[in-house]
Design brief:
This protein has 168 residues and is mainly alpha-helical. The chain folds into three domains: 5-72, Orthogonal Bundle (Arc Repressor Mutant, subunit A); 76-109; 112-164. The chain has helices spanning 5-9, 22-29, 33-41, 55-72, 81-105, 112-131, 133-140, 146-164; strands at 19-21, 47-49, 52-54.
Amino acid sequence: MEYDLTDLLGEPAASHPEIVHERQLAGLLGISRQAIGEHVANGVLKRAGRARFDLAASVKAYCAHLREHAARAGRPSQGGDALKAERLRLTKAQAEAQEAKNRLAAGEMVAAEAVSREWQSILRDVRAAVLAVPSRYGATMPHLSANDVAALDREIRAALEGLADGNA
């Protein structure tokens, strides 16, 4: 729907200038003169002369720009907003990395390498203890033959190898 200045301001167009100074336009739009210059540079507003603007055309163009900007809100991956989205992703990643460093320094987290080394040590101890079972058991049970102790040793080793291969 198109309006002219009379419709918008409720007064005859003759009482309002069609061409306004940059300062007046900035005041009417509620933005700075620098923002007016940026909108001119970006092609949103067009000058009608030095520091002069067609009021109706400028208001329509600025409103159209605001509608377009509002329509893009929430979709940062489109067009010029891709850089903003990438910066936001980078900033979030940096914040998460710093948070992880802080938690590590505070002792709330442990480095994966340290956990891996500790588990390797525990599992080596478990393996050694389990492999010692046949000889300890054979020493306490004199009625078992050397073949019985060797069979128990083979079964334990087969079970450990199965676990190592992922076959429980």
